[in-house]
C-alpha cells in the first residue's frame, strides 16, 4: 500500500515539475498557430514541433531559462545546420507570418530569414512586443509598409527587413529607437524622405537603405550619430547636396551615395576624413575635385565616375597615404594625369571618357600640356 502511495506521489511530483519547467500551453498554442500559416515542403524543419514542451527540441525555438517562456525564434532558410546539409539545398517556405506570434509576449528575437516565398505583411501587433531586441525578416516576399508603431520597440537593436517588397515611407517613429544599432532596409520599394530626426538614432552603427525609391535630401542630423560607421544610401532618388559634416564624422568608414540625383560639389572634408570606402558615382556632381588629399587620406575605394566633374586630376592624390581603387571615368576632366604613386598602378579604365585627359596610362600628352 505504502509503495503504491509513494508511486502515485512521485508521478504527481514529476508531473508538477514537468509542468513548471516547460513552456506554458499559451506559448505552445501560439507557435502551432504560427506554424499553421507556413508551408515548408522540403526540409521538414517543423517535424520536431511535437509534444507539450515547446522549450525542448523544437527546431529554432529557445526559451528563457527562468520563466520558461518562448524568448527566441530563429528560422533561417540559408544555414549550415545539418538539416540543410543533408538536403543539399537552401530553404523555401511559403505562407505568411501569423499575428498569433504576437501572443509570445516575452519574445526577445524573431528571425524568419531567407525563405524567399513568405508573403503578406509584417504583423502590426509586433510593435507591442516590449522585450523584442532583434527583428530579422530579410530575404522573403513581404509587402505592405513597415508598421507605423515600430518606435514602440524601445529595446530593439537590430531591424533587418532587406530583400523584400515593402512599400510606403520610413515611419517617423523609427527615429525613437534609441537602442537601434543595425538598420537594414535594402532592396525594397520604400519611398519618401529619410526622416529629418534620423540623427536621434544615437546608437546606430550601420544604416543600409540602398535599392529603394527614397527621395528628398540627406538629413544633416545624420552627422550627429557618433557611432555611425557604414552609411549606404545608393540606388535611390536622393537629391540636393552632400552635407559637408559627413566628412567630420569620427568613425564613418564606408559612404555609398552612388546612383542618386545628388548635385553640387564634393565637400573637401570627405577627402581628408576617416572614410576609406567612398562611392559617389552616377550622380550629377560637378565643379573641380578638391585638391586637398593628404596623409590622412586612405582609400581602399574612391569612385567618382559618371558625374560632371571638370578641371584637372588633383595632384595632391600623390600625397594620400593609400589609394587602392580610383575611378574618375565618364566626367569632363582635362589635363595631364600626374606621375608617380598612386597613378603608376592604375589602369586606363580609371580615366577613360573624359574631355581631354592625357598621360599614362592614357595616350601621351602633346607638348602644350
- Count the helices. How many? 3
Beta-strand content bin: 15-25%
Oligomer: single chain
Structural class: alpha/beta
Count of individual beta strands: 23
Order of helices and strands: HHEEEHEEEEEEEEEEEEEEEEEEEE
Domain Leucine-rich repeat-containing N-terminal plant-type: 25-64
Signal peptide: 1-22
InterPro entries: DNA_repair-toleration, Leu-rich_rpt, LRR_dom_sf, LRR_N_plant-typ
Keywords: Leucine-rich repeat, Repeat, Signal
What would you say this structure looks like, in words?
The protein has about 375 residues and is α/β, with parallel strands linked by helices. Helices cover about 10% and strands about 25% of the residues. It has 3 helices and 23 strands. The strands form 4 sheets. Strands 2-3-5-7-8-9-11-13-15-17-19-21 form a 12-stranded mixed β-sheet, with no helix packed on it. The protein has a 6-stranded parallel β-sheet with strand order 14-16-18-20-22-23, with no helix packed on it. It has a 3-stranded mixed β-sheet with strand order 1-4-6. A hairpin with a 6-residue loop joins strand 2 and strand 3. The longest helix has 19 residues, at about 1-20. The chain is elongated. Mean pLDDT is about 90; it is low at about 1-20.
Amino acid at each position: 500500500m505504502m509503495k503504491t502511495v509513494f508511486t502515485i506521489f512521485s508521478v504527481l511530483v514529476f508531473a508538477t515539475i514537468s509542468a513548471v519547467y516547460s513552456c506554458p500551453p499559451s506559448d505552445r498554442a501560439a507557435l502551432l498557430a504560427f506554424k499553421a500559416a507556413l508551408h515548408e515542403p522540403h526540409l521538414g524543419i517543423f517535424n520536431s514541433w511535437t509534444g507539450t514542451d515547446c522549450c525542448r527540441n523544437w527546431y529554432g525555438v529557445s526559451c528563457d531559462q527562468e520563466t520558461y517562456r518562448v524568448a527566441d525564434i530563429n528560422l533561417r532558410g540559408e544555414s549550415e545546420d545539418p538539416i540543410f546539409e543533408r538536403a543539399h539545398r537552401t530553404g523555401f517556405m511559403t505562407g505568411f507570418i501569423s499575428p498569433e506570434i504576437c501572443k509570445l509576449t516575452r519574445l526577445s528575437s524573431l528571425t524568419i530569414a531567407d525563405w524567399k516565398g513568405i508573403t503578406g505583411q509584417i504583423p502590426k501587433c509586433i510593435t507591442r512586443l516590449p522585450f523584442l531586441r532583434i527583428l530579422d525578416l530579410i530575404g522573403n516576399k513581404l509587402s505592405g509598409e513597415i508598421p507605423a508603431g515600430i518606435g514602440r520597440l524601445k529595446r530593439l537593436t537590430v531591424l533587418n527587413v532587406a530583400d523584400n517588397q515593402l512599400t510606403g515611407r520610413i515611419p517617423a517613429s523609427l527615429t525613437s529607437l534609441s537602442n537601434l544599432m543595425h538598420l537594414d532596409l535594402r532592396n525594397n520599394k520604400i519611398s519618401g524622405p529619410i526622416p529629418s530626426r534620423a540623427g536621434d538614432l544615437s546608437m546606430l552603427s550601420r544604416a543600409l537603405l540602398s535599392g529603394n525609391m527614397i527621395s528628398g535630401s540627406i538629413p544633416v542630423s545624420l552627422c550627429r550619430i557618433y557611432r555611425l560607421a557604414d552609411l549606404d544610401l545608393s540606388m535611390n532618388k536622393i537629391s540636393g547636396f552632400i552635407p559637408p559634416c559627413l566628412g567630420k564624422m569620427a568613425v564613418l568608414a564606408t559612404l555609398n551615395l552612388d546612383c542618386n540625383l545628388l548635385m553640387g560639389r564634393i565637400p573637401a572634408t570627405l577627402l581628408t576624413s576617416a572614410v576609406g570606402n567612398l562611392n559617389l558615382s552616377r550622380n550629377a556632381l560637378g565643379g573641380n575635385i578638391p585638391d586637398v588629399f593628404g596623409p590622412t587620406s586612405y582609400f581602399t575605394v574612391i569612385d567618382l565616375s559618371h558625374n560632371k566633374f571638370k578641371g584637372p586630376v588633383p595632384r595632391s592624390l600623390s600625397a594620400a597615404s593609400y589609394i587602392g581603387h580610383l575611378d574618375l571615368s565618364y566626367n569632363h576632366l582635362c589635363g595631364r594625369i600626374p606621375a608617380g604613386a598612386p597613378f603608376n598602378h592604375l589602369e586606363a579604365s580609371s580615366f577613360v571618357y573624359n574631355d581631354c585627359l592625357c598621360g599614362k596610362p592614357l595616350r601621351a600628352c602633346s607638348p602644350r600640356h
